[in-house]
């Protein structure tokens, strides 16, 4: 992560800012982050606009890393649109903000569209792990410290006491590990990572021996000015393979649900931020009061894969809290996939209309007329989704997918997300994990599960379990087009038709 952001910062400075006007063909040059946004802009702009996407066809906007050519494209843009709410990686946001011309509107749609009637919902991550799900988080805005959306917070592991070693690492989508904190060769400046403000990420936490560990984390704010502003630090206690209640002086044992080791940009404090639902459970617990339970049921064998040799010999047992999601997954507390509710797409296009009109006043009448026509089309699309999905029996409106991109679709059209994510894509799922997925499919009596065309490599386990259970494997579009769906309307109509085809009662 820190390597990607550093690379993006470097390429972002290649071109500097430009005040280039419309292209030689006279059209307004609009650059967006995704194809979906580019399509919406083109519908609004019509012949007066040339809209293109930085993320290529079929690309994953969550993980796309920008190139020097992207920086040059942004520098030549008259208008740029991002989705943000941490949909795009910060390296891409940095490239855009560093290269966008000073007189070019640079709009973050998901945040700004609320004033146009967009409705946002929390990003609900309901992973049925039987051990604690532990990550890293940055809370607060940091405005008083000069933080912006291109700022980053460094979280560094500065000290570890314990009977063995700790490696906190992320397993990327294709199984490549990326070590964040690794005490096996001593802790130094390399044992750190960065997150944007208001973001969190998921990690594997591996311990080589049982016992009590104390890990000190320190935070610092980087506002891209060459200086690090010190934040707080805190020392967290882990009970690995031993009774956490035996640790004296600790008031809170964290042993289930979702917890993040957190740096607060506003207060400067470091604490555990937990979503534990137990009666009396605290959401925010000072590091000094916490003991994190890593029980013996968290024992896993080291994979027989040379990429994981840093953990020890293949087959050896280590205690590991799994990262619980596939690949790099940095996001905030709000679900960024607003367009899966057509009402939110309507808010986007109205914001786009006003943005284009402010940059190109001569085209205002055209933008208004195009938007009126397109809003009628979106109203028809919204009604199509409602009437089509209403034909699915309520007990069959269950979505099992490989990506948490469909919360808005579920909320707007009376579906239920019962998502599944492989806890550790570097290893074959355990018998217990496969059993839980099988039980979910069986108990809910779902006739189908859903993959996304651009995320096929993440779906092998889901596909195999679905086939073992005798249910269909179907396809939904989340945040990218393919050759079969090249417009927003086409992808949403496909989603409605596919949900009806695969979940409808054809018995």
UniProtKB/TrEMBL annotation:
<dbReference type="InterPro" id="IPR006127">
    <property type="entry name" value="ZnuA-like"/>
</dbReference>
<dbReference type="Pfam" id="PF01297">
    <property type="entry name" value="ZnuA"/>
</dbReference>
<protein>
    <recommendedName>
        <fullName>Anchored repeat ABC transporter, substrate-binding protein</fullName>
    </recommendedName>
</protein>
<comment type="similarity">
    <text>Belongs to the bacterial solute-binding protein 9 family.</text>
</comment>
<keyword id="KW-0479">Metal-binding</keyword>
<dbReference type="InterPro" id="IPR022434">
    <property type="entry name" value="ABC_LPXTG_lipo_actinobac"/>
</dbReference>
<feature type="signal peptide">
    <location>
        <begin position="1"/>
        <end position="21"/>
    </location>
</feature>
<dbReference type="InterPro" id="IPR006129">
    <property type="entry name" value="AdhesinB"/>
</dbReference>
<dbReference type="InterPro" id="IPR006128">
    <property type="entry name" value="Lipoprotein_PsaA-like"/>
</dbReference>
<keyword id="KW-0813">Transport</keyword>
<dbReference type="InterPro" id="IPR050492">
    <property type="entry name" value="Bact_metal-bind_prot9"/>
</dbReference>
<dbReference type="InterPro" id="IPR022435">
    <property type="entry name" value="Surface-anchored_actinobac"/>
</dbReference>
<keyword id="KW-0732">Signal</keyword>
